[in-house]
Design brief:
The chain has one helix and eleven strands, in the order αβββββββββββ. It is mainly beta and 164 residues long. The strands form three sheets. It has a four-stranded antiparallel beta sheet with strand order 4-11-9-6, with no helix packed on it. A hairpin with a 2-residue loop joins strand 1 and strand 2.
Length: 164
């Protein structure tokens, strides 16, 4: 990232975060080339209503942690952000599609936080190509966190919920 472009880059990252929210996207990845050895790579990911940014620039003088976050506050160190996909009890999406947490609109959800589930029990539905795919619990346990909202798009490998 060029020293002269710092304010413009922060505004660009903020615009990406707004674009992510306004279009109900879960992830954006952009690379801006300023010159031969000067570029900005930004990946903005939305998970469970959290927007994180990752900035990588090969010829950058300042460390990425010195960049302001989307909200204007100093960015947290990457290790400080918990990644639900890395949790040992994470249930991840086996496909790309739209999540439905209930069997039909207005019905009660398949599972809620605190519910005890058995292996094979339907946790939610992912619609892909007009096909409703029931996602079963991979193991018995208690639902600790639901990481997706009804009607949101998910990608392959995205964390859906935590079962312990």
């Amino acid at each position: 990232m060029s020293k002269n472009n710092t304010e413009a880059d922060v505004a660009f990252i903020q615009a990406l975060a707004e674009l992510l929210n306004s279009n109900e996207l879960t992830e954006l990845s952009v690379k801006r080339e300023y010159g031969e050895d000067d570029s900005l790579e930004v990946r903005v990911v939305k998970q469970a209503n959290i927007v994180t940014t990752q900035v990588a620039a090969p010829m950058m003088a300042a460390a990425p942690a010195a960049m302001p976050a989307v909200g204007g506050a100093p960015a947290a160190a990457p290790a400080a952000v918990e990644d639900p996909a890395q949790h040992p009890g994470a249930v991840t999406s086996p496909m790309v599609g739209t999540v439905y947490i209930a069997p039909e609109p207005g019905a009660s959800p398949f599972v809620t936080v605190g519910a005890t589930v058995t292996e094979g029990q339907t946790l939610l539905i992912i619609e892909a190509m007009k096909t409703m795919n029931h996602i079963p619990a991979p193991r018995a346990g208690t639902v600790k966190r639901v990481l997706v909202s009804d009607g949101t798009a998910v990608e392959y490998g995205a964390p859906l919920m935590i079962i312990e």
